[in-house]
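A protein record pairs a chain with a discrete description of its three-dimensional fold. The shape at a given residue is found from the number at the same position. Here is what such a record looks like in full:
>
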Amino acid sequence: MPASVWVGARRRVASVILGLAVMAMPATAEIPGQEASAFQDAVAAWLAEDEGTALTDLAALAQGGNAAARILLALIDKTPALQGPWLSHQSRDARLELMRAPGGMSGRSWMTAAAAQVPVAGLWLQLWRVDAPIDLPLAFARADEPRAAREALVALAVRERRGFAGIADAPGYPDSLRFLVWREWLEDPDTAARVRTELALIPPGDPQRARIGTPPAPGALAEWLLSAPESAAIAALCTTRCPAAPGDCALAAHDALASHRALLVFGSPSEALIPSDVFHASPKGQSSLLRRILLAVDARGRRAQLARAEARDSCLADLLQSEAQRYIPRRD
């Protein structure tokens, strides 16, 4: 495709995505700078995979004090799956200058500066600390950041924190992470019955069943993957890119990701800035999911991962292979 044709097509995609993003955003922006046209243009370019334009513009906005740009840059910098080929091919110094605030040997996260401007940025700083409070997920939920609420719960569980039963009945506790509560309830005869009650109410394909020894059947799991909000990324990828057999694609993607928890925390870096449905439907959202799947193994395990995906669904395997090729440095 000639370069001029590609640029024109890319701009049309960016325009469509920006229109969808604006329609999905709340009427009143809650993060300073979110409503700026320059920020919205940068987000649209990022979602359309014009990473060079998007990150360069976001960096300029961050340096000018835009809190929304600072938050988004900090989250992309913290999340390898959100970092595309253009960024990966930059030198270390260029990456640091682009993605971080000045200071120290390796720059400083823009999230620190953003925390002085908007409270929600402080929640992410708490999440990145080993002593994050047990009720941090609820604070994210109140801030309309449900994906971050799930990430906070997963991070606390990985750090072997306890006390989930104490927040289980609070508004905003994610339904998709009830299994963390079940473990504590099963230790107490007075609350063990609540686990059976909740199990009877969740969908038959919910992977949480596997946490207590009753994994869902493949058919039920495929249905859950294509319908559950927590699996919207897989559903969007498979229904648009592998429409002939989306259920097979979904099962293969879930298998290749090799982590139910990874699926629960994947999604828009900030749902207040980029609504989940806009992110999942975008080229960036779908390439980021493929990238996250590829990052589930190291380079030595990549061949086996792709072979297993090919055996389960050739369409997904082709998508993964194409995504992996994008990160191979090209010689001029």
About this structure: The chain is about 60% helix and 0% strand. Residues 91 and 106 are 13 Å apart (CA to CA). The two ends are 18 Å apart (CA to CA). Residues 3-24 form the longest helix (22 residues).
